[in-house]
């Protein structure tokens, strides 16, 4: 999946009319000052901008002083610092990599800092703002180093770098969520902050992080000329005496430090570092001497406006929408537009799913038998372990207590097995249609779209019949996939890498919508986390009925595998054999959506099963879908059952959602795939 620079990449340095940049800076500063004052006037108490100004000039009463200096001013300063840091970080990293989609969140830096701060919080140690900042910096540097190691020589390839950043971000977010699950108090304290929050308990954190931002900003002027020269290409920069590799390292380290500061003060806020520099370039400013300060100013504007909107959109329970959710709602569509303009070079490369020699006869039968035995063994273990251990003799002759426990566990194990099988087949079929080995329902936004449909019914129509949940999930998943295909299709061709990148952006936007819906309901934070992570806990017999249609679709997909084999051959050859590509793709994708949506309605958003199981199956039995899909279904069922069982045991009597467990396995697997692909493409 080698990629080339997009037409939407940061433009090479070119002369900017002198009045344009200074005027833009002046307007940005005036607008930022106005928004700063407006944000000070936002809040639950009845203090307007005029009241706040009287307090700041020494004319307010004691109550107003307490409100302004304990809550309003720290929050506004936190937004100013976070936005400034994120805007500078985005401008630096986009200039250093010449990648229009590079940003602290898309490269996994924010997630790495978030994981480190969550881990520090989970230890129970009071490390203060300096300790939190150091932890955030360490996590951000670690994430950036991992992304750099995965991208290697493809650092200028937008597709590969973003896929690497996504893999690192998913791994870090999953680990952070698991740490939150270990302690309910920690989960309550970090859930809101984990979506980006400017709420402060005083001026200490904003002032310290503001000072750190100013200190870091002192290094920016020294990078202006090198960044302008790097925008002309490495050869030009080297000819002008710039060590491109060393200078790029300095730029990345400084951008990571800015991102760590932003996470320290406000948590991981997405898309600000992506949108702010792009907005500046859109007004014609390209020289970094003006672009970087303008990016910081626009970033601060975006954060303060988003936080004000989040406060205005009060939830039904009296809370507010986190600022990171608002920025994702805005930044997600911007990301989709940018990805549509991206050129990766994969549309003409043909099938990108690895072809493997098929097994035949006895060897294939042996693989199927072993997979079936593994599934039976995993289900028996799932039935026997838990807070109450049950051996085989007790299963055969259960007393009333054992029978009750077995009944609950049996339903749960069946839900896990059925959901895993459906997700595996969905992943295998989507990979065949899109011809991308990284295609998977959760990475294509299908799971997010299904979650929007299901959560909408749960939160807004709680008295609706149960069948409406899977129906709404199916509709949401199908619409999400149609959107991905429409945005990713360009000039009549479907670029495999662009499809995944569009899905990543859509997944971020749908996740924000789901969290808004959940927060506006009376659902508890624990219920929100459980739903978003996927869980088999408390499943009843009627819940299994939601898997009937997906399982029937699974059977039909396995039976009709000849078109899937032909789809892997590219565009021209299937048409020569009379295959209606459009009709077949639509039918297959509708089947995959039904599988993913039905599973989401049953056990929530469980990811990576559709990535891992088909790859393992191809390695065992080859690429023929007639043989691969049944094995993938068995392996997917084994994976989810085992993940659910381990999740029940890790922190017993509490439980880790199955979606977190599959992500902890799936993200390293995705990283390994990226690493292997990099070696192949060298």
Automatic annotation (TrEMBL):
It is a multi-pass membrane protein. The chain crosses the membrane at residues 77-95, 107-127, 133-150, 162-182, 202-224, 249-276, 367-390, 410-430, 442-461, 467-487, 499-532, 544-564, 576-597, 628-650, 656-674. The keyword Transcription does not apply. InterPro entries: ABC_BtuC-like, ABC_transptr_permease_BtuC. Pfam families: FecCD. The keyword Disulfide bond does not apply. Keywords: Cell membrane, Membrane, Transmembrane, Transmembrane helix, Transport. It is found in: Cell membrane. SUPFAM superfamilies: ABC transporter involved in vitamin B12 uptake, BtuC. Belongs to the binding-protein-dependent transport system permease family. FecCD subfamily. This is Iron ABC transporter permease. It comes from Microtetraspora malaysiensis.
């Amino acid at each position: 999946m080698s990629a080339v620079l997009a037409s939407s990449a940061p433009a090479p340095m070119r002369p900017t009319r002198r009045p344009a940049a200074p005027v833009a800076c002046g307007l940005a500063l005036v607008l930022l000052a106005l928004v700063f004052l407006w944000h000070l006037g936002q809040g639950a108490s009845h203090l307007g901008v005029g009241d706040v100004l009287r307090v700041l000039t020494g004319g307010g009463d004691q109550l107003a002083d307490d409100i302004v200096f304990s809550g309003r001013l720290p929050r506004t300063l936190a937004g100013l610092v976070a936005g400034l840091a994120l805007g500078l970080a985005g401008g630096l990293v986009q200039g250093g990599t010449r990648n229009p989609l590079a940003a602290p969140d898309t490269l996994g830096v924010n997630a790495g800092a978030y994981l480190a701060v969550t881990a520090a919080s989970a230890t129970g140690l009071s490390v203060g703002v300096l300790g939190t900042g150091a932890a955030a910096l360490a996590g951000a540097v670690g994430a950036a180093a991992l992304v750099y190691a995965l991208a290697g020589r493809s650092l200028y390839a937008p597709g590969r770098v973003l896929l690497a950043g996504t893999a690192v971000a998913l791994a870090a977010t999953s680990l952070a969520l698991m740490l939150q699950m270990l302690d309910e108090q920690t989960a309550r304290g970090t859930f809101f902050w984990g979506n980006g929050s400017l709420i402060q308990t005083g001026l200490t954190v904003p002032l310290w992080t503001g000072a750190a931002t100013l200190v870091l900003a002192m290094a920016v002027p020294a990078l202006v000329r090198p960044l302008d020269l790097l925008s002309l290409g490495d050869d030009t920069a080297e000819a002008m005496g710039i060590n491109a590799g060393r200078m790029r390292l300095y730029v990345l380290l400084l951008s990571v430090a800015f991102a760590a500061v932003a996470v320290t003060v406000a948590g991981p806020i997405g898309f600000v570092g992506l949108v702010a520099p792009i907005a500046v370039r859109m007004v014609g400013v390209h020289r970094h001497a003006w672009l970087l300060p303008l990016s910081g100013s626009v970033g601060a504007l975006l954060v303060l406006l988003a936080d004000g909107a989040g406060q205005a959109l009060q939830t039904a329970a009296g809370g507010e929408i986190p600022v990171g959710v608002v920025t994702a709602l805005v930044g997600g569509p911007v990301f989709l537009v940018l990805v549509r303009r991206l050129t990766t070079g994969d549309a003409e490369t043909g099938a990108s799913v690895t072809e493997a020699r098929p097994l035949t006869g006895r060897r294939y039968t042996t693989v199927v038998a072993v997979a079936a035995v593994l599934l039976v063994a995993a289900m028996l273990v799932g039935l026997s372990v838990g807070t109450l251990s049950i051996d085989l003799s007790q299963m055969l002759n259960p007393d009333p207590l054992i029978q009750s426990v077995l009944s609950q566990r049996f339903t749960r194990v069946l839900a896990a097995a059925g959901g895993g099988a459906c997700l595996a087949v969905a992943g295998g079929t989507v990979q065949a249609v899109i011809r991308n080995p990284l295609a998977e329902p959760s990475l294509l936004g299908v799971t997010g779209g299904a979650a929007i449909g299901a959560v909408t019914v749960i939160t807004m129509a709680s008295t609706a019949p149960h069948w409406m949940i899977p129906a709404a999930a199916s509709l949401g998943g199908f619409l999400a996939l149609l959107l991905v295909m429409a945005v990713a299709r360009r000039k009549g061709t479907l670029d495999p890498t662009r499809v995944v990148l569009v899905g990543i952006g859509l997944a971020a936007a749908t996740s924000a919508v789901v969290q808004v819906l959940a927060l506006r309901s009376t659902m508890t934070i624990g219920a929100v986390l459980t739903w978003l992570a996927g869980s088999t806990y408390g499943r009843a017999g009627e819940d299994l009925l939601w898997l009937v249609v997906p399982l029937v679709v699974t059977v039909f997909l396995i039976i009709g595998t000849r078109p899937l084999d032909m789809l892997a051959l590219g565009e021209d050859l299937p048409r020569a054999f009379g295959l209606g590509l459009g009709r077949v793709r639509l039918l297959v994708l509708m089947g995959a959506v039904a599988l993913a949506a039905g599973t989401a309605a049953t056990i929530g958003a469980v990811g990576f099963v559709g990535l891992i199981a088909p790859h393992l199956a191809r390695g065992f039995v080859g690429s023929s879908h007639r043989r691969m899909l049944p094995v993938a279904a068995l392996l997917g069922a084994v994976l989810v059952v085992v993940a659910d069982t381990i999740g029940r045991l890790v922190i017993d009597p509490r439980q880790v959602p199955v979606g977190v467990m599959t992500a902890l396995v799936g993200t390293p697997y995705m990283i390994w795939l990226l690493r292997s692909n990099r070696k192949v493409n060298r």
